[in-house]
Amino acid sequence: MLSRIDLRGAALSDLDARGLRATLPRAEFDVEAALDALRPICEHVEHGGEQALLELGEKFDGVRPPSLRVPQEVLDAALADLDPAVRAALEESIRRARLVHSDQRRQTVTTQVAPGGSVTEKWIPVDRVGLYVPGGKAVYPSSVVMNVVPAQLAEVGSIAVASPPQRDNGGYPHPTILAACALLGVDEVYAAGGAQAVAMFAYGARDADGATVCEPATLVTGPGNIYVAAAKRLLKGLIGIDAEAGPTEIAILADGTADPELVAADLISQAEHDELAASVLVTDSTELADAVDVALARRAAATKHHERVDVALRGRQSGTVLVDDVDAGLRVVDAYAAEHLEIQTADAAAVAARVRNAGAIFVGSFAPVSLGDYAAGSNHVLPTGGCACHSSGLSVQSFLRGVHIVDYSRDALAEVADTVVTLANSEDLPAHGEAVTARFEGDR
Length: 444
Ligand SMILES: NC(=O)c1ccc[n+]([C@@H]2O[C@H](COP(=O)([O-])OP(=O)(O)OC[C@H]3O[C@@H](n4cnc5c(N)ncnc54)[C@H](O)[C@@H]3O)[C@@H](O)[C@H]2O)c1
Ligand SMILES: N[C@H](CO)Cc1c[nH]c[nH+]1
Ligand SMILES: [Zn+2]
Hints:
Blueprint: E1 4-6, H1 10-13, H2 17-23, H3 31-61, H4 72-80, H5 84-102, E2 109-114, E3 117-125, E4 128-132, H6 141-153, E5 158-163, H7 175-183, E6 189-191, H8 194-203, E7 205-206, E8 212-214, E9 219-221, H9 226-235, E10 240-241, E11 249-254, H10 260-271, E12 278-283, H11 286-302, H12 306-314, E13 319-322, H13 326-336, E14 338-344, H14 348-353, E15 358-363, H15 369-374, E16 400-408, H16 410-426, H17 430-437
Parallel strand pairs: 1-13, 4-5, 4-9, 5-6, 9-10, 11-12, 11-14, 12-13, 14-15
Antiparallel strand pairs: 2-3, 3-16, 7-8
Pathway: Amino-acid biosynthesis; L-histidine biosynthesis; L-histidine from 5-phospho-alpha-D-ribose 1-diphosphate: step 9/9
GO molecular function: histidinol dehydrogenase activity; NAD binding; zinc ion binding
Active site: 339-340
């Protein structure tokens, strides 16, 4: 089922890093390609406010929401009607996420640079965040947890959620998404999806009379499809964003010790998100690759979303990469920089410790990606499209800014004045030095 790329022997050693990246499977319709489609959507929201957002709901989600903001009674009813088993599972997911994310909180640190001279690094949360929760082909209450838990632990003062309107829920987001918001104490929820939701948070939205319906946010986080990721790229600067967390990717580095049934199950688990999802196997075992193909064909045909899975597995973003050994495999997975990387090899922990580029790493046979999706305690909002070589998954840190507070006494400044003047003159910016010496003019 998976196409094959053979990188054994010179095929790998002859490639430099750029050439290797270009050889690996990636979708043709990427974030850059989606930008043109959504520029007019974002402009429509900027100028058309609430009315534009309601229209775009009708156009892209097949239903015009009764109101952009979800009324409190609708949130309360969703929580009251939530299946107790789903509520218990969400509560356990929240508990584990809070455990892990609590440990990410940064402390204010003061460094005494010289007598009387200190720099304090203080972590200040953004004022207001817009959290995106996907809801197109599937709905994602788990992404409410993954967005809201770190934002709350970072003590962001104002938290709003947007998710696409659902035809089956009278034009409001899916009831389990609303219930998850209510469970976490989030009461500002909007029925808006895709690029238009990101634009709503960037520009804010007013009604036809000019009254504010949604205040602009300073930061927008959360996962979504290619249009959501592209909107974040387009509006970055006006708003802060987390990493581009677009269509899901799984890469599995496996050797002959791996169980082909488990490898196939995990590749399919992420392929069911989206036709653009990527499932990549990197292995030094042709026997394993063959057995995975057989298992994929059987399992893919039997799974609920088999049509989507089939398209994703056959797409050019998915494939098997054959390598000489695990060392060569590590070079390939580092170049690919997967959102999720599973290590299913002998001595998996030691191999995992050598990985440099991945959004999250899952070690051995008992840590499938779907554990991380729901209940490992780790965050599932992770960088895609190779962004894992420079960006991290969502964390408490994503919602904080580190601000340096510089506090120097007269004596401490006098002590370093010559250093500043010398460096300022070396850059031909003498007024910088004069701003320091002006403070000591009376001393001469
Ligand atoms: N990287 C991560 O951390 C992560 C986590 C969870 C999910 N995901 C990904 O999130 C995505 C969820 O996608 P989804 O589609 O189910 O929900 P979604 O909410 O991301 O997207 C639905 C929205 O897409 C917009 N849209 C659809 N077709 C469009 C078009 N032709 N032009 C413009 N806009 C269009 C619509 O406005 C719709 O509301 C999947 O790709 C999944 O893999 C990623
Ligand atoms: N695998 C997705 C991207 O990390 C997250 C998710 C949510 N629900 C199921 N899966
Ligand atoms: Zn998933």
